[in-house]
Amino acid sequence: PAAASASPPFHAASPSSSPTPAYDAWCGVAHGCTRKLGMKICGFLQKNNSLDEKNRIASSFRDRQTPKNQLSCENSDREARYRRTETDFSNLFARDLLPAKNGEEPTMQFLLEVMDILTNYVRKTFDRSTKVLDFHHPHQLLEGMEGFNLELSDQPESLEQILVDCRDTLKYGVRTGHPRFFNQLSSGLDIIGLAGEWLTSTANTNMFTYEIAPVFVLMEQLTLKKMREMIGWPNGEGDGLFSPGGAISNMYSVMVARYKYFPEVKTKGMSAAPRLVLFTSEHSHYSITKAGAALGFGKENVILLSTDESERPLICFMDAVLLMVLGGCVSWQGYHPLFVNATAGTTVYGAFDPINEIADICEKYNLWLHVDGAWGGGLLMSRQHRHKLNGVERANSVTWNPHKMMGVPLQCSAILVREKGILQGCNSMCAGYLFQPDKQYDVTYDTGDKAIQCGRHVDIFKFWLMWKAKGTTGFEEHIDRCLELSEYLYNKIKDREGYEMVFEGQPQHTNVCFWYIPPGLRDMPPGDERRERLHKVAPKIKAMMMESGTTMVGYQPQGNKVNFFRMVVSNHAVTRSDIDFLIDEIERLGNDL
Amino acid sequence: PAAASASPPFHAASPSSSPTPAYDAWCGVAHGCTRKLGMKICGFLQKNNSLDEKNRIASSFRDRQTPKNQLSCENSDREARYRRTETDFSNLFARDLLPAKNGEEPTMQFLLEVMDILTNYVRKTFDRSTKVLDFHHPHQLLEGMEGFNLELSDQPESLEQILVDCRDTLKYGVRTGHPRFFNQLSSGLDIIGLAGEWLTSTANTNMFTYEIAPVFVLMEQLTLKKMREMIGWPNGEGDGLFSPGGAISNMYSVMVARYKYFPEVKTKGMSAAPRLVLFTSEHSHYSITKAGAALGFGKENVILLSTDESERPLICFMDAVLLMVLGGCVSWQGYHPLFVNATAGTTVYGAFDPINEIADICEKYNLWLHVDGAWGGGLLMSRQHRHKLNGVERANSVTWNPHKMMGVPLQCSAILVREKGILQGCNSMCAGYLFQPDKQYDVTYDTGDKAIQCGRHVDIFKFWLMWKAKGTTGFEEHIDRCLELSEYLYNKIKDREGYEMVFEGQPQHTNVCFWYIPPGLRDMPPGDERRERLHKVAPKIKAMMMESGTTMVGYQPQGNKVNFFRMVVSNHAVTRSDIDFLIDEIERLGNDL
């Protein structure tokens, strides 16, 4: 203790100078091996010793004698581990946690309790004997379920209640990682990704500068380079960012295209450019049109090109049609074609536009080629399937969402751009308070001025960690396996009684689109009545699925097609038995419709 | 066992039918009390029994006899708790975790190990004897630090290495929750918020539909209503969304304003409107100008109004000036004033625009009034300080980032809109595959069609949980306390030798802006040489701070003012001693400059 007080490991508050003693009196707890630790890592704080601190140290040592303080030396993580105890949380509140005085013990116990809730949830997510969801209508949840009250109040609730709220939040939610959740393109609960996201939350920082996110900024840079290499851009050169989802990534592509051809729009607005036209297919994601509306092009200047007439999933920009459209536009009323989006993996059919054919046209007419690979980009990781994106290396920009086909937790979407510097040129505002040129490090690593966001969430770490843990080969296996499962489903139902496929031929992605025809409709002649009845089948089956909680799968109408099921697989927990289960379940629920 | 096999708790894969046995053979582990559990919660799966399943159950029971299987009945969480053991992770890989066969035990051990790393980090974050950061230059981290290699490879790394990577990622990062981290408007590490974010990651879902985020969607709705009540809109009516940060929230406000006055722009583009002008102050956040550039208005149509000439922090739209500008615009070359942004808490000075005065002008000229309260919105929670936002109830839209002044983990930013339905009108694209009108629940709860994103991260839960845990009064205490601390700093340095304040008078927010004048500069006459030398002082001190790792505070130039420090407090762990420490540290490092 004598040596320790000569070399204290912390700089402490003076309790007497504080208006709120409960906060100020807290100053870090003295640990068992103060002497060693203090000498070793705290030298830089020595000059700040004061009488206050010495008093504080003395009182800290007194605290150590009380049974409450169970800390040992931090020098070794092993020694400092907390064990969960049966803590009574009913008299504890948020204000008792760190940074409160003596807050460390309740903080650790609270976090361990939360962790217990979460690991239980994880285990049950993979357990097929649990439901996918426990469905309730909005009014039921709003009315309050047995002690689960969503209303906020002026007064704090006990930590006991907070823990109950955590349990109930999970209880009444949807297990998107359950092997029988097929409802969304994003599904699954990757354990490494989950750990990565927990760490990200704990680091709680922001991507805008190297200064406060040095490791994450570099991880983003290296990962984006790797993705550009997989796209096939020479040496992985180019630029990119992780953005809050595919819609924003697609919006970036339109912004950058506009900046490339009409940089003056940034300063002068859309009136400085001719009437700009964007092209995409009618089956592409609605975010292209949304970007057109938001960025001032107008929805009607986003031309939705028809797919080919055979109703094949392959969305074909037929050369002749496109040339006609473009040729017409160039000379027609000042319309100026700017941008073509080719979709690699459409949302509903999972179809891949023929990128090379589209690239030929874009090169000929000097148009920006964007590839929306939000859903299909993951196939670049598979030697077996990457040919579906042939020509992607000719794109000017690519959207690729690892949070979809690659099973990375939400959110994780990249916009990748072939030309270096153009993101910066398009979006920079040079805010002096964030991007000071006179920092001590190489400020080209600051990313914030490339983004339309200011603060930007750390989406990279979970993905980087998964890549480390699985390797490129692990992602490849995952993708190949999901596609095999969808092939299994396709082969199982394509000739099965009671099923009709929505498009001909084998799916290109994991999307399998089909109608289930209940026995009562099978003998009905084609016509409006059958269509109307069939239109109601999928919603009814889906509603029953959700109420029984056994499985979830999406449905929708498309064009003149009545509601059909869209089955997708992106979760590595899915097995053939789960595919079988889905079919059994559809037949069980739909038999009497 | 007899009863159990008649009523199995799971539906299993047939190992023989699988192309990848390691995955398919896994089917959930049989738990100790199959009989009880199977009867109770698995009834809905009974009809799916098959011979395969029976075989599987039998083998599951055999598995239970092996020492590896340590599971007990899940019926009680207490019984099922995992204890950390000394697991050897060097021979374990991601593929050994769930959903792998026998993956539960390694999964739990891995997650507990991660949790241990994270809780250690949390403890150290609050411990003043640890550094705020361990600074390295980009090239140093890229070259690799003792086993921490950022490069990605084709082959997987062991879980041992993954755990090392997790530790190193935290080690070389920045402790934004450390009581001496003052670098950003967002700081602190709230334990409840952290728990909330961990849960959010584990739930891994998406805000676009009630269908897959029922609880989170309702929490968002109730919380936004509460925020609108605090703004003062009648009955808390209106609309809103949580968006990925203040810049995007501000972008929403401009989009919605444009839609309100020129809805045809959505369809026809900016050419359908006159030349629209946005107004904001020169001290406002750059995201207003960025939105102007992105959305097609053009930077030069975002008019930056001067602040008042006394250099007070109060950014004053002088009535006469504004009237002149607006009056001029209305009749001048077809310019059409659309939108005024009033900042509640500027980024650098923390100044509040006089909202009522600006609202008078907006009402007179029928302009959209947006209040950017990204930083200052939190003061609405404080009875003592909310008067600084007087008039906010007259705004048409408000940005309010709980991730700044309210200490909520990143990201958490709300855009609130007074007029119901306008967000939907502005942004809806009615994508059939997501927003089916024939769902079994009230689909007005689906939020996705209001957003410019498609998928949207769950930002609400941590905030909702913190509000529950602290109550409104807890947020009020937090805010009052941070403002008191900044007052303490202001009083301490305003007349102290070697300090000059950047603006006169007491700060309105926690921003305290000042120059530190090293002894060698104190006797220099005013002039260019002094300015040049002073300009270099803050960057030098900041660089030394970062290299020693003791504290971090922001600096920047502004207008014709050379680099000065901007001190802010938003972390509830900060005490007066930390403020003292910062001043001591600046003087220690800057003394010889």
UniProtKB/TrEMBL annotation, chains A, B:
It comes from the Eukaryota. One of its GO terms (biological process) is gamma-aminobutyric acid biosynthetic process. One of its GO terms (molecular function) is pyridoxal phosphate binding. The modification N6-(pyridoxal phosphate)lysine is found at residue 404. Its cofactor is pyridoxal 5'-phosphate. Residues 1-20 are annotated as: Disordered. Pfam families: Pyridoxal_deC (PF00282). One of its GO terms (cellular component) is cytoplasm. InterPro entries: PyrdxlP-dep_de-COase, PyrdxlP-dep_Trfase, PyrdxlP-dep_Trfase_major, Pyridoxal-P_BS. The keyword DNA-binding does not apply. CDD domains: DOPA_deC_like (cd06450). Keywords: Decarboxylase, Lyase, Pyridoxal phosphate. Belongs to the group II decarboxylase family. Homodimer. This is Glutamate decarboxylase 1. The gene is gad1b.
